[in-house]
Write a structure and sequence with these properties.
single chain; about 325 residues; 3 domains; 5-stranded antiparallel β-sheet; 4-stranded antiparallel β-sheet; 9 strands
Amino acid sequence: MKRTVPLLIVFSVGLLMVVHYFVPFLGDLANVAVVHFNILAAVAMILGAGNLLFTHGEKIYKQHSGWGYSIIAVGCFLAMIAFGMFKIGAPPKQGATAELTSGASIAMVDVEKSGKSDYALKLRAGKLEPDTKYEIKLGDKVVAETTSDYKGSAAAETAIFTGSDAPDSVEGMTVSVGELTGKLEPYGAFTGAYDDDGTPFWFFYYYAFVPLQQTTFAMLAFYVASAAFRAFRARNVEAGLLLGTAFLILLGQTFAGNWLTQGLPKEGFWSFFQISELSAWVMIVFNTAGQRAIMIGIALGIASTSLKTLLGLDRSVIGAE
């Protein structure tokens, strides 16, 4: 039973995700499955974070080799989580918001400020009368119109103030969606983006993580050069073709390649033999063909693996030995 039920769930949901592309009315059910997948993915991320803390915590506690690096990893991990979750140093959003309600009808309106004097009104979500046209007003001025869909939700967005016409503040202004009316209130705490310019999260990401990432990729260039030196030894015909193609592509990206063939005409038959043209031709024709072949192979591999999982032939998804 412990294996049968998970396999039935995997088979049913997997089949649903395939069939709903051909049977439109199953789309809503497929969306529910996607929501559950996102929930499971969030849980998996929590488990991954817990595993990281456990692994490095054990290494620090027992002072295994490199435990100092584990302290740095755990400290940076916890700091970035705190900066992101609690939005430390992130100011509230600029602008104002209003939740308009009347009976079963609901409309969420935001008037967001971008830059020094530009405001944009956005109807984020709603629970309105289905298939009904609504006017969105700011004060007595109609700034947008929207029609709710068959579920009663609607969305609209428009620039309402730009340049010198924009007020210093929109707080307290009346906003209405159809018969729903209310006043714009300033955004509360924790509404700002955690990665806005100047926030601690932004600072450590762009001034710590990005430089470290670029340094790592820069170091990879030396490994690539070493691997290329070993791979491009023309010991046989295939290696010779690889070496010649690589040399042509690299030469076509440099000034020297263009300089060597600058005497050839720019148009006509002989223009094809310019290094830059030959390099581009190889990339467009042979490289594209090879990439498509690889992608087709990957697609077939994904299809076969998915089919094995749906049919229960591959039980690694449920932890089988």
